[in-house]
Model the fold of this input.
Amino acid sequence: MRRLLLVLGTVSVLIAPSVGWGQGLLIDERPDSRFRLPRPHHPPRPAPEPPHSYRIKQLSIQAGMNDQIAKVQVTQSFVNTGSVPLEVSFVFPLPYDGAIDRLTFMVDGKEFDAKLLDAAEARRIYEGYIRRNQDPALLEWIGMGMFKTSVFPVPPGAERTVTIRYTQICRKAGGLSEFLFPLSTAKFTSQPVEKVDLQINLRSQAALKNVYSPSHNVDIKRPGDNQAIVNYQGTNEVPLSDFRLLFDEGSEAVGARVLSYRPAGGDEGYFLLLVSPEIKKTSDELPRKSIVFVVDRSGSMSGKKIEQARKALKFVLSNLREGDTFNIVAYDTEVESFRPEIQRFNDETRRAATAFVDGIYAGGGTNVDGALRVALGQLVDDSRPSYLVFLTDGLPTVGVTAEAQIAANALERNKVRTRLFTFGVGYDVNSRLLDRLARNGFGQSEYVRPNEDIEAHVAKLYQRIGAPVLTDIAVRFELDGVAEPAAIVNRVYPKSAYDLFAGDQLVLAGRYKHSGAAKVAIEGTVEGKKNRYQFPAQLIDQSADDSFSFIERVWAARRVGEIIDQIDLHGKNNELVEELIGLSKRHGIITPYTSFLADDRAPSALAAAGQSRGGREVDSFAGGAGGAVQGAKMARRATLEQLDALKDESGIRGLALRSEKRQLSEAASAPGATFGFRYREAKSDREVEVRTVQTIGRKTFFLRNDAWVDSSIDDEKPPRKTTIKRYSAEYFELIDRHGREAARFLAIEGTITIELGGKVYEISAE
Done:
């Protein structure tokens, strides 16, 4: 019987760099062991399991947080997929100074004792395993203490359910508390995890304000001012990124926090502004609004599209309220309105409008300019918020067809700051025109793939705009001794005016030149009245660690979105192309414009061939049918939304047009490649998997000639390198010298070329 050590990672609620605490690692403790940690088979294919392997069947996390006290229960099911029994014990790595209270381990309902090992003893265990098995995976745990349990068997094919319960105090930084759960280390399993289910119930004495995950696309429900329920679920996935949740509380009308990050040697810092308007209403009555729904009924909308459009219209009609005003404009070659002018909503107009919707059929051309002229001409009341929802699946073919003229006409006709939301359905749309209409109309553009539900997209938008809370928002930074706001912060995204609706949260990312104690003023309209809110912010001079390094990548992804948007609207610009490639290279944000960076045969520096290829991509996708499916659309969403799924820990970054939110995507790779991600290729509309790029902490690595190369190294001017053999004494000395962050980088398998402390090292695989 083989004796192994099952390492089960801690849940940290500390504001500190993630060190990847494990979720179920089986470690052979025998001195002569050569057992390597399991990796998932990818892509899935029939393959015999090794004699010593396991998989994680299910991972469930339930956390209740009262103010800063976290009570956590983790349930995890392990299956021995090997052919021999496993004799395992649990090791629970601890955070830096994280004293966990009331910790218990149970296996199939039976409680096991645990003992505390200090960091030195824990390091001996970790380092011994790394040396013995030639597997660097546990490097990221170096320097941590641990709890260790007694041993129990897991027969071949058997399943064991482990439950952990503990209490811990959350710590704060920048006015925010953070909950961190190490999902990423669940990648050490022979197969994808069948189900990941995470639920956090936040409660506080004061009202909860900002609740934001920079790592995952979470669902947040707010049952009351003092409670938030956060959910994340995944199926058949290998989690590559740790889960992080930031939250704060307070009694102020608008909850706002600024996080800042300035790396060593950085010329400018990065900031993230979170704004959550929990405005106390003076009345329970929802604000009245005006909405005009403009639907394309041209011949290309026939079949399922027009059926979905009718359902979307009926959804809007069923959710209007007494006092709202509305109209419906249907267009093909001709333009037809439900009524000649905007109507008050009541039972009579609802029934009549429903009958009008039932009579909408597809056929004819596409008169975009005429439809916008009729719709905007009906929105003339500036005493209430006005919205225009514009849906089309094709290019303008009737009347004015020049996109610049259509956009200029719409801007001139918009007399009451109508928010214009565009929906492009399918691929044959002029994405450049729809983006321009949305930008000029204070709204946003949405793109619906042919196999997606139009009704669901429209319903989601309508539910948001049903209850505006803070509109026409303007943000201003003030710093003593600096007169001009532009000299304090710059390149802030999103750039346009902002409206926040019930349940919304504004997330601004930008750069700053001057550090120090600043003030942030937020102005906006609440129930028709102008309001101003002010709060302090600290723009730090230099970050002590990489805890908030994710802010730099949030900004970089939004800047990439802005660049692609500019190229899509205005055409190719060599300076923009070079900046796009530079940002993609540094941060591992691969778009269809820069997919050549993922080619393991391409140089990681900005070679002329790479720039030329990027330019050809720009020429191919600047608007039209390609523009609706290329990276500009997902990057545009990133600019306007929160980039919910931007991973800030181990994992791969890539702008991927894959889901409803066009969010970032990731997938596990084959052993040896460590990580991978997918993006959608614009020309073929096929999903492309990339396993040659990975980002860990603040660094991005490209696979070049079978070696992982730090993207900060200029390979056009090769620096002098110091070669160090992996697992040698010098290897572990390098980790001692540069600390935890270096350990995370050096945990990459294979040959690594990396810059640390101003010097370049080559870590040889042999």
Q: What stands out?
A: Residues 550-570 form the longest helix (21 residues). The radius of gyration is 27 Å.
